[in-house]
Amino acid sequence: MKRGLFWGLAVVGGLVASTFIAGQPAHAATGIRVVNGVLVEANGTPLKLRGINHPHAWYTHQTSSFANIKAAGANSVRVVLSGGRWPANDAADVANVINLCKFNRLICVLENHDTTGYGEQGGAVSLDAAVDYWISVQSALTGQEDYVILNIGNEPFGNTPVTPGWTEATINAIQRLRNAGFEHTVMVDAPNWGQDWQFVMRDNAPQVLAADPTGNVIFSVHMYGVFDTAAEVDAYVDSFTSRNLALCICEFGFNHSDGNPDEDAIMAKAESAGIGLMGWSWSGNGGGVEYLDMVVNFNPAQRTAWGERFITGPNGLSTTSAEATIFGGSTPPEVPGAPGTPAVSGVASNSVTLTWSASSGTVTGYQIERATGATSTSFTQVGTSSTTSFTDTGLAADTTYRYRVRAVNAAGPSPYSGIVNVTTSGTPAGGCTATYTKVNEWPGGFQGQVTVTNTGSTPVTGWSVGVTFTGGQQMTQIWGGRTTLGSNPYTVVNETWNGDLAPNASTSFGFLGSWSGTNPSPSLSCSATP
After folding, report:
1. Is the distance from CB of 527 to CB of 463 less than 8 angstroms?
2. In terms of C-beta density within 10 A (0-12 exposed, 13-18 middle, 19 or more buried), how is residue 116 classed?
3. Cβ atoms 410, 72 nearer than 8 A
4. Interval 448-489: pLDDT, tens
5. What is the pLDDT of residues 79-122, one digit of tens each?
6. Residue 73 CA: distances (Å) to CA of 55, 212, 319, 321, 408
7. pLDDT value, residue 529
8. For residues 505 and 452, what is the distance between their CA atoms, to the nearest angstrom?
9. Catalytic residue among 251, 323, 369, 441, which?
10. Binning pLDDT at 50, 70 and 90, where does residue 381 land?
11. What is the model's pLDDT at position 314?
């Protein structure tokens, strides 16, 4: 949960009378460490984190995301873990996460999400409890100091004052970890839901760093609605870098319920200052912030606008990320060549199927763009594909559309293909389409919605949708339609009040379902009664 208020940034120079310089630590750090305010690897090479947050605690089966995040250009991943507020990630699971990071050549930032909003949100635990969790999985962490950064607790305080406060609780947590034998770089999140609008972390960071015998602490701020201007972003970052304090912007987005972050300023400042930057998040968001997903349903071939901005936009992963030297370094892929001009392999009144020849070079997927009108140049992206084909649905009958395609990889997008024009056929009477949306998902359960649209030229008086699940899912509750529960494949028919649809009109039905293993989208068919 990302919340915060903002009272304005004061002039940094007026608040910081002197510059804090980190001296030699009393005990030399092992592996990744902080030297004079710079995060470095064990060999002393600066380590500029460029990564993506991944909600592993809630989607433990989505292990392919580590490879997909790497393919997007990240050199690191911040992994959500839980010690019991959600199903606990035990030592064996933590060891597996670390192995996935190492196999995919990613620096692993592990964070305990149980502390989120402590003092304000029910169920949140203290930093002291977070340390108990890290000690319980210490066997998986010992010896991994070259690869792992330990983020003690995510957003460990809300906006409500608690005792002990952030400074004392953070110092106690760091010292408990050191006394228990942890030698990893420790990352500490700011209070105020990570946004530090009261400047508690900013003003007390030197005291926290001085309390660590290794001097091996990096501070983490989360930038959402509080940071909606470049001036605020610049002043906050400068307040750390000017005092040789290591900082990472370890969560941020392009939009949020508490305001509109200035993502361009955030990304530009992180690059110019040489500090860490990690976007929230790969996929799986719910509760009204689904727009923060970088890909749809964990599918790397279906990047969202936010994913495209963070990965391939200015100061994005494709141009600023460098693999950690602990993995031997690597040469980033070259931008692929343009794919072939699309060919039309299928035309209906409401859909067009396209195919094209593959691009040269390494390709992670294709983006398909469409314009309406025989000469239009107003193209917008309408989908992505991991293969060299795509079906565009929900189109108007007797309408000319133009299509072009480009390939993408971690280095960026290719040039566009040539353009093909195609005209849809006439609209049959009594036609309909059904489209599926996964509204939310949680371990063992999910919520889905199916939208039914009359694509015919005349009204319909009823509809029927066939729903076939291929992952063993079952519907457990339905509304807006009628079916026999527990009987996959399902046939869902309209209620008495939503069967009449005028041409181009839509209605929907929703359902709750159960799943295990994987939860792919169902296949749908639709028929209508004139």
Report:
1. yes
2. buried
3. yes
4. 999 999 988 888 899 999 999 988 899 999 999 998 887 788
5. 999 999 999 999 999 998 998 999 889 999 999 999 999 999 99
6. 18, 33, 9, 7, 11
7. 84
8. 8
9. 251
10. confident
11. 95
Told to judge if 251 belongs to the known catalytic residues of this protein, a careful annotator would answer yes
If one counts every other C-beta atom within 10 angstroms of the C-beta of residue 10, the result is 11
Strand partners, 81: 112
Strands (E) in 133-275, as ranges, are 148-151, 185-189, 217-223, 247-252
Instruction: Report d(CA 141, CA 93) in Å as an integer.
Output: 11
Q: Are strands 76-81 and 50-54 parallel, antiparallel or unpaired?
A: parallel
Give pLDDT, residue 24: 36
Residue (of 224, 229, 315) closest to 275 by Cα position: 315
Contact 140, 92 (CB under 8 A): yes
Tokens of residue 170, six digits: 């953070």
Give me the percent of the chain exceeding a pLDDT of 90: 73
Active-site entry in 155, 232, 263, 441? 155
pLDDT of residue 457: 80
Q: What pLDDT sits at residue 10? A: 30
DSSP per residue, 353-422? EEE-PPPSS--SEEEEEEEESTT----EEEEEESSSEEEEESPPTT-EEEEEEEEEETTEEPPP---EEE
**Contact, 264 vs 255, CB < 8 A?**
no
The C-alpha angle 408, 412, 413, rounded to 5 degrees, equals 50
Task: Pull the structure tokens for residue 94.
Answer: 């933590």
Residue for token pair 């076939």: 468
Please report the domains of the chain, with CATH numbers, ordered by start residue.
33-327 (3.20.20.80), 343-423 (2.60.40.10), 432-529 (2.60.40.290)
- Given a cut of 70, whether residue 28 has pLDDT beyond it is no
Q: Is the peptide bond before 164 cis (omega within 30 degrees of 0)?
A: yes
H-run or E-run covering 270: helix 263-273
Query: In angstroms, rounded to a whole number, what is the distance separating the alpha carbons of residues 186 and 484?
Result: 53
Distance CA 426, CA 438 (A): 31
Q: Locate 418 and state its tokens.
A: 């040539």
32 backbone dihedrals φ, ψ, rounded to 5°: -55, 135
The whole-number pLDDT of residue 336 equals: 83
Residue at token pair 């507020």: 85
